[in-house]
Amino acid sequence: MSRLPHRFSVIGLGALLLLSGCTPAHQRPSWRIFPLQRHQPHDGLAVVNQPDGYGLHIWLETDTRESGVCRPRWLIDATRLFNGNGSAPFSSSLATRPEFFAAMDRRDVRHALGRELEALCKARAPRSRWEWLEPPRRPEEVKKESLPMLQEKDLLSDPEEVRQQEESLAPIPPQEEPPR
Fold first, then answer.
1. Which of 59, 72, 91, 124 has the fewest CB atoms within 10 Å distance of its CB?
2. How far is Cα 134 from Cα 27, in angstroms, rounded to an integer?
3. Residue 75: closest CA among 95, 55, 54
């Protein structure tokens, strides 16, 4: 008698596993990974991580601040991929950061990123050495990018000062000649 409940639990568990594997294809992610260009070849990667072709469009950037070295610059705010399993995929709006981190946990995604980023580095800095840096996989691993400081040449001039300079360069209005 004591073996009967155990058998039913094993059979129930087996049936549950079998049924969970019967999810229709359109209701599970395909995890299709392919290059999806933004402006130039190799500057974007599509990852279909949701059902119906939704996913991430990861924008790829390079870091060449160190002379002779080209490495990835990680942009963790990916855009939302639409129609990723179709013939005309596109992206719009933002995907969630947890989705980005979940995608970075997959070896196949990291491998595709490495391949595309290396090709992008070769196109942008052909004389530089390629150096792979692992992508952040958790929020605490994200490094804040410090943007270069603005130099005076990058700043706009004060509009009032420009107006005064223009007026000082204007021709002197003609003077009336004294009567003779």
1. 124
2. 31
3. 95
